[in-house]
């Protein structure tokens, strides 16, 4: 199965999922694959939300639209052109997925298949409806994928390498269990934003997308702010205001109420606006509906602190303050070459 066939299949998948947006589902493709899969995928989106209340139609379609923009011939070729796939001998690669946001493991599956390997997928119970259906679509438009994609709920056996994503605690289990196997083991990471007090309204409004998209459950969601001494949070709260309807989502509201009660009983100082609490805290991972913040004295010292804690950080959002910083509003729009934990998945797959 040559590389161009693999690319073409993913391009067709991108066209397929591009039909599903928050504004509505529009069947604009008249080929047999679309006729066969369109209505079924609408049902899978419905099932995904019924199974997991965090997976709203808005968040699922946001994910789908993001992937549809990446699954183009131009973008995929730009991604893969730096690698040599000619010497690859197909291996079986196991993927253990997280389930915090919709299709969170799709990039790993795509990386394995684009590289010419076979994939064995162990999904999270929180996200088990969308990926198998999209895999069936891939097999339909490119029959040579049949037999190369396996989903299992059983104990993983007979594989050559593994990509496992979990918490810092589960990563210790993964490292022990998969000792002796080629592996990428991912741990907890969070994203942070650096504010200087000079941000305009549009930048702070964009930052709210980094904070609230997927209810803050993704590793690319900003969970902590670094602000200068005597920072005035009024402009920050104004920038977030358009997200105030998020409190109407009952799972989010329950977390907000619970965490607020815990903080008040513990007599912690916090600021809140009715749908988000901010609390001074040195930790990087904040609970749902909460954002931590920490003051800094000067940017050079802060950059050193962030460098020393880079194993805990997925993205840094700023106006170019740090190397490879992400612009406001862009954390949930990674490119194919923006690898999780800055570990090049394709490079790993070409060497196993």
Automatic annotation (TrEMBL):
It holds the Pfam family LuxC. One of its GO terms (biological process) is bioluminescence. GO terms for molecular function: acyl-CoA dehydrogenase activity. Keywords: NADP. It comes from Gelidibacter salicanalis. The lineage of its organism: Bacteria, Pseudomonadati, Bacteroidota, Flavobacteriia, Flavobacteriales. InterPro entries: Ald_DH/histidinol_DH (IPR016161), CoA_reduct_LuxC (IPR008670). This is Acyl-CoA reductase.
